[in-house]
Design brief:
With about 260 residues, the chain is an alpha/beta fold. The protein folds into two domains: about 180 residues, 3-Layer(aba) Sandwich (Rossmann fold), CATH 3.40.50.150; about 60 residues, rRNA adenine dimethylase, C-terminal domain (Helicase, Ruva Protein, domain 3, Orthogonal Bundle), CATH 1.10.8. Helix content is about 40%, strand content about 20%. It contains twelve helices and nine strands. The strands form two sheets. A seven-stranded mixed beta sheet has the order 4-3-2-5-6-9-7, with helices on both faces. It has a two-stranded antiparallel ribbon with strand order 1-8. Strand 5, helix 5 and strand 6 form a beta-alpha-beta unit. The longest helix is centred in the middle third of the chain and has 13 residues. It is elongated and about 70 Å long. The relative contact order is 0.11.
């Protein structure tokens, strides 16, 4: 079957499929959502061990091949995961587990949708194969160059663990980059955030100017609010000389929630 480059298709070799299934640790009662099952190598590995697999596949030809198997515990949904409503595949009975070899060009929007679904109680955890550089960003800690909006959004909603790294030769055709497997165990945010949109706005703004000190980076947003950056930082208990990449989740939450008074 022809590989379709526009879908970012790279198919995992069997020995690595087995290693991935072992890392996932599926149980007989589990219900899985698989994103982009492709030729069904991981699907088969899961079906040997779990109750049901809901597979969402954008490639109609690959979806048709999966449907022809007529496996009683496999439900194939044709469409783009980013557009298919959760009600199409989720029964609402309990949270699903997720397994996926994600296309590199769509990994961030898919990750963000998974986090949103997890907040709604739809998902329990996810084991994902991603470009290694993306995984580096997901597991990043404050004070490192990889710490930024993606790590912050992910770690607000999940405990994140890198499982293993795969060489390009683990796939056919081999990609031009290394891949890694990461596990997300979804949970409530460890910090209180009353206004998620406002929090995201502050984080995105700060990290577009990550080389600047907070006092300078925050100035444009502060002016929009009619306050000074110094007053905003004082209200949050943060020094103006710090930089965004040094701020852990509690400090970012305080900064986004701070409401300094406008000067008289």
């Amino acid at each position: 079957m022809t590989v379709r480059k526009r879908f970012g298709q790279h198919f995992l070799e069997r020995p690595w499929v087995d290693k991935l299934v072992e890392a996932i640790g599926p149980k007989p009662s589990d219900v899985f959502l698989e994103i982009g099952p492709g030729r069904g190598a991981l699907t088969d590995g899961l079906l040997e061990r779990v109750a049901t697999v809901h597979a969402v596949e954008i490639d109609r030809d690959l979806a048709a091949v999966l449907q022809q198997r007529r496996h009683e515990r496999l439900v194939v949904h044709v469409g783009d995961f980013l557009e298919v409503p959760a009600s199409t595949w989720w029964t609402g009975a309990r949270p699903y587990r997720v397994a996926a070899n994600l296309p590199y060009n769509l990994s961030t929007p898919i990750l963000l949708r998974l986090l949103s679904l997890a907040r709604d109680g739809v998902l329990a955890d996810a084991t994902l194969m991603l470009q290694k550089e993306v995984v580096d960003r997901l597991v990043a800690r404050p004070g490192t160059s990889d710490w930024g909006p993606l790590a912050i959004a992910t770690q607000l909603g999940a405990d994140v663990q890198r499982l293993f790294v795969l060489p390009p030769g683990a796939f056919r055709p081999p990609p031009s980059v290394q891949s890694a497997v990461v596990h997300l165990s979804f949970r409530p945010s460890p910090v209180a955030i009353a206004d998620r949109e406002g929090f995201d706005t502050v984080v995105r703004h700060l990290f577009t100017m990550r080389r600047k000190t907070l006092g300078r980076a925050l100035r444009p947003l502060a002016e929009q609010r009619g306050v000074t950056a110094a007053a905003w930082l004082a209200e949050a208990g943060l020094p103006g000389s710090a930089r965004a990449e040094t701020l852990a989740l509690p400090a970012l939450a305080r900064l986004a929630a701070a409401q300094p008074r406008s000067p008289a």
